[in-house]
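Aim 2, interim progress: modelling of the pyridoxal-5'-phosphate-bound target.
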Amino acid sequence: MELVQSSKEAIALENKHGAHNYHPLPVVLSKGEGVYMWDVEGKKYYDFLSAYSAVNQGHCHPRIVGAMTEQAQTLTLTSRAFYNDVLGPYEKYVTEYFGFDKVLPMNTGAEAVETAIKIARKWGYEKKGVDENEGKIIVFDQNFHGRTTTIISFSSDQDARRNFGPYTHGFIKIQYNDKEALEEALQLNNIVGVLIEPIQGEAGVNVPNEKFMQNVAKLCKEYNVLFMADEIQTGIGRTGGLLAVCGNCSCQGHCEKQSTYAQPDILILGKAISGGVYPVSAVLANDEVMDVITPGTHGSTFGGNPVAGAVAVAALEVIRDEKLTQNARRLGEIFRERMNKFIATTDLVTLVRGKGLLNAIVINDEPTSSTAWNICVKLKENGLLAKPTHGNIIRFAPPLVMTEEQLHECCDIIENTIRDFESSES
Ligand SMILES: *Cc1c(COP(=O)(O)O)cnc(C)c1O
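Predicted structure of the complex, ligand included:
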């Protein structure tokens, strides 16, 4: 393979030979370390996306990369036709870490969501006694759970859905953060589960009311349906709790002792469970739920492979040993405080919202305008990489290994860029 000599050349190659399923910011990255990335020309950037919160532990964390290379030189893939000597220890580690009886290992986030949907349906028929093939799962407006045919069947995003039918049945969509709507939907027949993001990341970092997730947990219990938390983006330290359903604690896997903990029946993890070095995802549940999975009912060639197990243990150890959850909570407060002060001085930003280091600012323009995109292009020129989500919203989610000093430097870049942008527009 020839190496590209310039950003321009790399972009031209992707345009010519790759499917056009993304619209990236025009920057070509060739190196990452901690909170930084470098482009092909050697320009250095702060990463303020963290690959959609997969790189919580920072780019190329030596402990995680070390675990991967060591395992890759020993044994990479056996398939589940045989046992391997890493999977069991990994399964023990991850279930104790998050406080569940069992884990089902997969590779990507969408696969883990699909797995959770299958488990919930099977549980509905075999344990709850729901009418055969009539099981329904409650989902929420503006959700993002991945890109498979079943998952896009209940998406609100027309680009994600249009011309991909026929769609999968069995989903009821209600308003997010609406307890009454949830209670009403739970009274319908044949409900098996509620699939929810504790904070809607892709929708623009929609944070529900403080008690909403606890209410979801309580109502699910009351109506005997499974509470399925998609923590693929919010989990693993990102929002200042080990999980977003932990509330504001940093109890690191002992959240059940905390009054704020909204205990899911099914926990869906991906992204940062590998620190962004390898595709790893996981579905966790207790025995009475996971029991419905028996030999032949579900699987994946790569799911549970030894490299994934070694990587995930190292990635979770880093979160705990480097106290990244606590750092995310502390820096998040500093970030929102600075943005709120700044917002008081500008007309271009109306709002900052978020939890821990999953935050977004709302740009004061039409959702269809290119203002947020243009600001992100300027941020890039000034050495900080972020991306708009849902038109006029910019998500800010740096790696959790950031220091307070670096965060202040990033806030300076953001504030100066927006100020310059504002004066150049007027
Ligand atoms: C990214 C994401 C997914 C999908 O994960 P993939 O690895 O891209 O398939 C699902 N749910 C949420 C909340 C996500 O952020």
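The chain is about 35% helix and 15% strand. Residues 62-321 form a domain with the Aspartate Aminotransferase; domain 2 fold (CATH 3.40.640.10).
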